[in-house]
Amino acid sequence: MEFSKENFSEWYNEVVESAGLVDKRYPVKGMHIWRPYGWKIMMNIDNYFREIFTEHGHEEVNFPLLVPETEFKKEAEHIRGFEDEVFWVTHGGLDPLDVKMLLRPTSETAMYPMFSLWIRSHADLPLKIFQIVNIFRYETKQTRTFIRMREVHFFEAHTAHRTFEEAEAHIQEDIKIWKKIAKKLALPYRIVKKADWDKFPGAIYSLGVETVMPSGRTLQIATFHQYGQNFSKPYNIQYLNEDGEHEYVYQTTFGMSERLLGAVVGLHGDDRGLIIPPEIAPIQVVIVPIVTKKKQEVIKESKLIEQEVRDAQIRVHLDDRDNYTPGYKFYDWELRGVPLRLEIGPRDMDKRQVVLVRRDTREKLMVSRDEYIVKIKELLANIQDALYRRAEEEMSERIKNIDNIENVKEHNGVSAVPWCGSDDCGHAIEELTEKKIVGSPIELGEKKRCIICGKETEKIAFVAKPY
Ligand code: ZN
Q: Which of 78, 243, 404, 436 has the smallest number of Cβ neighbours within 10 A?
C-alpha cells in the first residue's frame, strides 16, 4: 500500500489502522478498538507516567466511572463547560433512576466529594493523586483516532494544598515532570497560557502544552490547571490549619491523554509508516533472518542473537515467519515503526557480523558480533535524539511572527501575533482570521503594537487552527 504524508489527514487516518494501532470498525462513532500493538505503546507511556509521578510523590487511585448528577452540579462554571458533552445514564434496568448519573468527562466531580472526607488537617496536605482511566465526551464534531474521541484514554493528576503559593509551586513541578515526558516521547512543544474565555471550566487559569502537527494545526497534548479554591468551596474541602482554623484547600490538576500517541504518530512518521521513539517502542529491535540458504543454521543463529539482545534489556522480536519474504518483513516492520532492524544471513554469519538498519534515516551498518550490543544501544539513543531534533526543527518552522491579519489568515501553522490581551481584541483576532487563539507564551516578546487596536504590548497570541 502506498501513502504519502503530504496529504497529512489521509495519511494519519490510514496509518493508525494499517500499522496495527487501532481498529476503527467498532459500531460507535468515536470509539475505536486498541489493538495489541497500539495498546502496548500506550501501556509503555502509562507505565512511565506511573514511574515518574510516583517518583514525584503522587499515588495512584481508581475512581468509579459514574458520577451522580447532584455532585456534578455543585460547581456552576464546570457544569456549563461540560453539560452539552456528557453521556447520561438514566435507567437501572427498566426503572428510571431517582438521581441520574453521568459517565465522567473528567473526574473533579467524582473525586472532590471524597477529598472533603479525606482531608482533615494540614498534616493531610499536600494530597497528590493520579489515575489512568477512560473518560467519555459526546463529541459532535468529526472524530479522529487518538485526537478527538468519545471514549478517551486519560491521565489525570489532582492535588490539594494549604496555600495558593504551594499550589503555584506544584504547577512548576508538574512542568518539570512534563519536560521529562516530552523527552521520553521525543515531542517538541510550547507551553501557553489559555485565553480567559478558553480556560478549563472552573479554573482560575489554564496552561496548555501545544504541539504543531504537519497539517499546520495545533494539538493540545497536556494541560495544567490552577483551581484556587473554586472547587474546594462548593465541595467543602477544608483543613484545620496550625492555628486551629478551618481553611479551604487550593487545588491543581495535570491532564494528558492518548493524544500524546496521536502526536507521536503525526510528528515522527513518514511515507513508510510510523516511527516509534525507542524509549516507548514495544519492539526496539526486530531481527529478520535472511534465509536464502542454510536455513537451519541462520534460524539457530537468529535465536541466539535474540537471546543476547534480550539479555541486554533491549525489547526484541525475532520475525521467523516462514511464509513471508525478507522484503515483505522489512516493509511490515517499517510500517509499524520499529526503530532498528537487525538482518542476519549466511554471509553475515561467515563474517561474524550483523546488519543494522535505522528506521528513521534508513542508514545501514555492518557491525561485528563482538560489539553489536553496544552499537545497538548507541543507535537507539541516537534515534531517540534525532527524532526529537527533527520534530523540533519542523515544528519551529511552522511558528512564525506575523503582524497583519491577512498573513495570519494565510499562514498554515501558528502565527505569533502582538496582542494587547483584551477580550475585545482577542475575539476580533479570532473572527477576522477565522482561527483560534490557542494561548499566549509565558515569556513576553519585544514591544510591538496590538494587531487590532495598535496599543503597545509585549504579549503574544499564538493564532492557529487547533484540532
Ligand atoms: Zn488590542
A: 243
CA nearest to 280, candidates 29, 21, 9: 21
Distance 2 CA to ligand 1 centre (A): 48
454 Cα: distance to centroid of ligand 1 (angstroms): 6
The CATH homologous superfamily to which domain 285-382 belongs is Anticodon-binding domain (3.40.50.800)
Is pLDDT above 70 for 1? no
User: How far, in Å, is the centroid of ligand 1 from the Cα of 33?
Assistant: 46
CATH 3.30.930.10 in the chain is located at: 8-268
For CA atoms 372, 329, 261, 187, give the dihedral sign: positive
Order of strands, sheet of 436-441, starting from the edge strand that comes earlier in the sequence: 59-60, 127-136, 151-161, 250-257, 218-228, 205-212, 190-193, 436-441, 460-464, 414-418, 399-401
Q: What is the CA radius of gyration of the chain?
A: 25
pLDDT at 2 over 80: no
| Residues, Cβ < 5 Å to ion ligand 1 | 420, 425, 450, 452-453
Residue 203 CA to ligand 1 centre (angstroms): 24
Q: At what angle do helices 259-268 and 164-185 cross, to 10 degrees?
A: 40
Q: How far is CA 397 from CA 22, 436, 461, 465, in A?
A: 31, 19, 17, 16
What CATH class is the domain 8-268? Answer: alpha beta
Say what the pLDDT of residue 275 is. 98
Into which CATH architecture does domain 399-464 fall? 2-Layer Sandwich (3.30)
Beta-strand ranges (E) seen in 104-249 are 127-136, 151-161, 190-193, 205-212, 218-228, 238-240, 246-248
If residue 66 lies in a helix (H) or strand (E), which one and from where to where? strand 66-68
